[in-house]
Design a protein that fits this description.
Blueprint (H helix, E strand, L loop, with lengths): L10 E3 L8 E6 L2 H11 L3 E15 L2 E15 L6 E15 L23 E2 L4 E3 H12 L26 H6 L2 H4 L12
Parallel strand pairs: 5-6
Antiparallel strand pairs: 1-7, 2-3, 3-4, 4-5
Length: about 190
């Protein structure tokens, strides 16, 4: 997905992040929510917000920690009725201006959980918090939303004894092919 394809952008220049870190509370506009809803295949997106803390993590790295919350209009996969899904996703990501992943040994204790994931790239000296929030919203959506109490009950039709895999073969079966006499015919005997 290209950067231009995303409908919500909130870029923070890495050079503007002070030593003590930076806090950002974000609220997507109606137009941005409509664009994200279309991208995510949602009926609508009533609310989309994010709260992020950006801190310097050394060696050209930035840690972004926070939460993304949303109220997403989806459709129940069982009843096909509309429903509202609540999304509340924790975000903890390392960004780096280095093109290669940072070795796990370089990470401090706070970042041990993130050691297995390579850092995300810092693009043109900035981190796009809107794109990050959109990504975590999409990760937090239930791909098979189900309305409370909705239960799938398959339609069970009564079994017709004439409707089975070998019914067509039975119709082709003739008395001559079985070697048995036709019913009602008499055979000559001794």
């Amino acid at each position: 997905m290209t950067d231009k394809a995303l409908p919500w952008h909130v870029k923070v220049l890495v050079a503007d992040i002070p030593e003590g870190g930076l806090h950002r509370d974000l609220q997507a506009s109606e137009a941005e929510r409509a664009g994200v809803a279309s991208l995510a295949g949602l009926r609508d997106l009533q609310q989309l917000a994010a709260s992020f803390d950006l801190t310097l993590a050394g060696a050209g790295r930035i840690r972004v920690h926070g939460r993304v919350s949303a109220q997403a209009g989806q459709t129940c996969v069982v009843s096909l009725e509309p429903l509202t899904s609540e999304v509340d996703e924790e975000v903890d990501v390392i960004f780096s201006d280095e093109p290669h992943p940072v070795a796990a040994a370089e990470l401090d204790e706070q970042e041990d959980a993130l050691a297995d994931d390579p850092p995300e790239p810092i693009v043109n000296g900035a981190i796009d918090l809107g794109a990050l929030a959109t990504e975590f919203l999409m990760l937090g959506l239930d791909p098979y939303p189900r309305k409370a109490g909705a239960v799938f009950e398959p339609v069970i039709a009564p079994v017709d004894p004439a409707d089975h895999p070998f019914a067509a073969l039975k119709a082709l079966k003739t008395p001559e092919s079985t070697g048995k006499p036709k019913s009602g015919s008499k055979t000559k005997g001794k």
